[in-house]
User: Fold FAD-dependent oxidoreductase from Streptomyces nanshensis.
Amino acid sequence: MALDVLVAGGGLMGASAAWRLSARGHRVTVLERFGPGHDRGSSHGTSRIFRLAYAEPSYTELALRALPLWRQLEEESGRAVLTLTGAVDHGPPEVLERLAGVLARAGRPGRRLSPGEVAERWPGLRADTAALYHPDAGRVHADDTVAALLDAAGRRGAEVRHGVRVTEIRRTGGGATVVTDTDEALVADAVVVAVGGWAPGPAAGVVNGLPPLRVTQEQPVHFPVPDALEWPSFIHHPGAGLRLPGGVYGLGSVDGVKIGLHGVGPVVDPDHRDRTPDPAALDRLRAYAEEWLPGMAGTGPEPLTCLYTTTPDEDFVIDRQGPVTVLAGCSGHAFKFGPALGELAADLVEGGPGLPRFALGRTAPTR
Ligand SMILES: Cc1cc2nc3c(=O)[nH]c(=O)nc-3n(C[C@H](O)[C@H](O)[C@H](O)COP(=O)(O)OP(=O)(O)OC[C@H]3O[C@@H](n4cnc5c(N)ncnc54)[C@H](O)[C@@H]3O)c2cc1C
Assistant:
């Protein structure tokens, strides 16, 4: 039975849910408070890492589920959004051992490389003690993805309304009423709340068991090197030659090679944050590049800011209570799974089961 579904939030998560829900024949309206392509949340910019190698096998499975959906999105929207360049993980041998084991059990290729082999193949990158290469990885163009998802949803009948802020969500009868900043009251069978760093507001009031969400402003940089598009994506895991907690990630993009620290930025209020680059954070990345990225020599880094919304266990929140499905707590690593998370959201809206790892009210240790 076709349902009327309102989706609050038009970033990666809301747009993915809208695409998959409209593909299943539901009548979808997306309400997004800012304009198309805005840079106030978590889904803007030109690049995100796609990779299969995760220490936790269920994330590898999820990325494998996303892969054909990425290609389907490209076909439906006519936009190329995912480029496979391969990925290099490097750092402590035991970390790489675990990633290689997960890839092998999933039947996907992965190859150990020595630091010398890495330097030979990618002279711009200096690897730590040990390295692992897997080819099923690369970059997703973030801005183009959100546009492609909303276009594809629109072609299947979804209505996308920008400049509309949801101020209240109420459960009414068997469904829900969504109130907007212009005092419209929209009634639907189901609501998907996908408001990223703003989730502690609208989502917290309408469901129980939302874990504490830590909203931080992260500050990656681009080094505008000319061969950026030939770079693999890479993760330098902490613990061997690297002492930066959370490690360093990087990848090529049309803006240069992007590198960033994972989840170390200051806690912010998304409505009142100063987006001026933090010189100390910039210095840390510059110092990292001097030591580990000979390919950046002679280029100056350009900073940008973006929000992380992190749960204590760094697993997402994707669950339903009554007519309300919540997609939140993306913890800085959800982009690669986007279309698969949209499928999961559509299953939940239709009354199907979710994944216990992403459940509201779960009890899990803090990472
Ligand atoms: C610097 C950085 C690097 C990252 N790198 C990677 C990576 O390499 N690989 C990877 O897989 N992931 C990565 N991520 C994570 C990924 O980008 C995020 O998990 C994902 O974009 C989260 O999307 P979202 O839809 O939850 O949030 P958002 O993109 O913030 O979307 C939420 C939307 O809701 C809207 N909204 C808010 N309140 C309301 C309201 N009341 N009414 C209507 N609309 C509202 C906002 O305007 C916003 O557009 C990175 C994130 C950052 C910040």
DSSP finds eight helices and 22 strands in the chain.
